[in-house]
Amino acid sequence: MRLEPRDHPPLWLSIGAPIAAALLALVLSAIPLTWAGAAVGEAYRLIFEGAAGSLFALTETLARVTPLILTGLAAAVAFRAKLWNIGAEGQLYMGALAAVALGAGALNLPGIVLAPLILLAGALAGAMMMLGPTWLKLRLGVDEVVTTLLLNFIVLLFVQMMLEGPMQDPMSMGWPQSAPVLDQAALPKLVEKTRLHAGLLIALAAVGLVWLMENRTIFGFEARAVGANAAAARFAGMSVPSVMLRVGLISGALAGLAGVCEVAGLKGYVTQDLSPGYGYGGIVVAMLARLNPLGVVPAAIFVAGVFVGADSMSRAIGVSSYIADLIVATSLLVMLLASLVVQFHIRFRAG
Amino acid sequence: MSAHAPPGSTPAAAPEVLRLTGITKRFGDLVANEEIGLSLRRGEIVALLGENGAGKTTLMNILFGHYVADSGDIQVAAHAGQTGKPSTLRALPPGSPQAALEAGIGMVHQHFTLADNMTALDNIVLGTQPLWRPWQARAAARRKLDALMRRSGLTVDLDARVVALTVGERQRVEILKALFRDARILILDEPTAVLTPQEVDGLFEVLRALAAEGLAVVFISHKLNEVLAVSERVVVLRQGRKVAEMPTAGANRRSLAEAMVGRELPENQRPPHNPGAPVVRLEGIEAPGELGRAGLHNASLTLHSGEIVGIAGVSGNGQAALSALLSGLARPTAGHLFLLGEEISHPSVRGFVDAGVGRIPEDRHRDGVVDDMEVWENLIIEDLRDPDLQSAGFIRKDKVMARADALIAENDIRCPGPETRTRLLSGGNMQKLILARVLERHPRFILANQPTRGLDIGAVTYVHGRLLQACAEGAGILLISEDLDELLTLSDRVAVLYRGQLSQAMATAELDIRGLGLMMAGHSAAEQDAGGPHAS
Amino acid sequence: MAEILDILISASFWAAALRIATPLIFGVLGELICERAGVLNLGIEGIFTAGAMSGWMAVYLGADLWTGLLIAALVGAAFGLLHGSLTVPLGLSQHVTGIGITLLATSLAYFTYRMTLPDVTSPPRIEPFQPVDLGFLSELPFLGPALFQHTPLTYLALALVAVTAYVFYRTPLGLALRTVGENPAAVEAQGISVYGLRIGAVMAGSALMAMGGAFLTMSAFNAFFFEMVNGRGWICIALVVFASWRPGKALLGAILFGAFDAFQLRLQQEIAVDIPYQIFLMMPYVLSILALVVMSRRAAYPKALMIPYRKGER
Fold it and tell me: Which of A63, A94, A31, A74 is nearest to A291 (CA)?
């Protein structure tokens, strides 16, 4: 088998490959579903209904799309520059914690000031989480995958410590949770009586900005060059460390924003189970999107839909909702294969 | 053909050990080999001559099983061939290096296939013992190698890690690898590219001795002199086809060159040496080397406007440090660096580029271009801060594309358009892209590091022409090259780098290739004047 | 100060250190084999989980302990085959594929566990490996309880370190493995299949990782919990760097790590200072990062680590 690089993959292939990957992941996941004794057609119908079968289902899915877009962007931006930030989960929690640190009563400001302020603080907190790993990578060559992964565990324990200690809500009757964000700083609902909130608009705006940055600015050019060939970027006069550092900070900030949106838009306060793995889900989203910011939106909708749908399917017919994790993980691996088809002509022939 | 064999070579009756028939191989639209046939006898040295891209390496990679031919047969003598008995030829299973090795074929690749962090012995015994055997027979291997080294004269320190060996020693390890496996056919791909002239002579002696013992050798090269010096028969490839085959005794430079190139090439005229003001001056520069390579020690040199100074030397003797220094990538630890009359205390790439320095890197793919980006992007990658091309951090795509289109047209970069992925360009066109980027700003100083490595003759001529033209227009050019012919053709003066020491630059007219070779091996110019050991 | 000394000279402390180190020895060894062959295996965290679940499940469903261990190893090897197939011949990103394997192995383990035992609330226990009686050795004062009263898996882990070191440095296979991680072209030129070697190494390494996971459920906790692996896989990756890719140092690193962890556990119990317990729980992760930082300057990576090899690429 030989792989011959394509010049520009045709558009139908760029769009079709992720869709095919998602469908193939669903087909493959029918195996464990069958094994679990479920009627596959029925299970997928329930998943689809649970994700998009009603206005309520749709808003539930879109509410989950919000953080996944942001963590997906965080991964896409970093991966494009070959900075392997696997720490979005921790950055999300730090963003959330920063939001309640300022927004839950410490500053009693009008909403018009407070809401942007906590968004900024959350982004900053997330960005700071990338400072260490990026610096260690650049200065000492320490693999950022391992440091960002390990930081996830440290952050989770830190959050636990805060929620059982200094940041515990005195009104929580001993539950490890923070005080809620003040009402005026909460993000408004987009559809009344649902959980869909303005965070989605923030996420979509971030998509546009990141796209613009990557495709139209000099910094985006530099980030792409550094990712594709750091030696040539350096030879051309770019400061690889400075570009990497900025990419790392942007990536962390996006993940931090996801945390703020979850708190200020949805949950109100921080708990230890604020994120059901949005950080890791973001990696899948980014890969399904082939690191293209615009592709992050449909990819996030797919992943969120699978999770929301699987939950409701699980309640209906008793198949474990871990099937959602399984579908999403499978789709990541299938997508990697599909990306090969997009990038290369694959010629089968001995030698 | 045997009637032409030089005295002392194999008798005509020597049995055939290898026969290739009708080998054809395509890569996409490119025909790398077309209907090539080749026969090899025991104890014979055959040269496979052709320019870069003629299909020599592809043919040998097919023989060795790295590629599978689209059509054609390979037959190798069964082991009886070694005893001189009439041998039977057997088909070699395609696509299997393992099968090629078992059939007695050994290959020394142009880029050595050695693991640097392991010892010479490790590299040689690798794969010669059953993989699942729970012990290694190292003592026996060492005995066999000692005997081999004595017989062939290929001595190396078997316990030294490859990284500590010189290029010449590494090549010996490669040849020993093949001999250790009792190879009866040895293929050498451009084996002289990295050697000093004296090392080349040594290699030829070894090859003749090995051939006298019955080894059949295929010597791949694009250098006419070497082919004439070592081979008994020459096979010439051009654009994937066999265009000539003749006994070396009946061949001469001109006939071979014609067969190899197949067309008239414009001769580049070198302008008279007419140096102007200094553009670069090094004074007592100390610079560290990277990855165990030599740095620069007390290096001094002055390069003037309108002249080309060549830097000769075996790779790894400080070229990388010199190149990094003059690209703006590295900072000297001591000494003074003057650029256009001004001392540079904090070198930076951007500072150099802005000051009018053009840089052609040694490795196009690694440093020269981002090959996953598009042609237009690589054309402007050094100009991102140019106010014409950007505003407030945003790229002005219309201006950029207009400039890219113009550069592509002016420099004859063959590509479907500015949005082609650079990876898909041929080596020559990639180098044209880099030249376009470098020459567009009319640099006053050009660092050209191996500017023609791996290019075919047409592209080489083009690159040389552009450099000479830039020189005539007043640029000072520092040419770092391993190709002595290139250095002697282009340079006004040549300096030699040996273990980080930069010699005086000497006028090219006063130099001969053997004297340069001695200096590249560490003998000083003074020693030579005192009647150095060379015979020419 | 006296308290600290008390901890360090107690046999039970060293026994705990070795117990904590055992799964890490399996994991570090497994990752080391993969990386020495040139393939980073970030599937380790998920393979640990899958090994823990499958070994335990086999025993729970009636298999004997050694069969359970074998099943865990086979499950690990299967995930290794998947990782190897995607990253070696196809050359897909080792980072992303590894994360994908971790997500897949983890979710498959959880899903299987949930579907097999849909109604249990507290995790059912199995009869685990028992400490081996090594006769007079186990009776020795101090050394007996510290070193010679462990379960067979601990001794298996120690034996595997020796076996790996022997294979690496004394056999033709080991030479080929070490070389393929340095320069695959050298291996190919000597007629050995790069793909075969690398995929084989990833499978063997992944089998070891799964055995490390199985230790958790079959020797340490006797039951399977969600999230029980808790970053041990990632810690192993840091320890491989700490060990400079050498089996002997890997053993040393794992035991040092086990000792630190055992120490902080004791300290947590014995020192009644007002430090939140989470600080202690963070220590293993912080230590791992520190190990990476300390060793980074001296790290001599296998040169071809994470670089895919494409046969016949022009």
Answer: A74
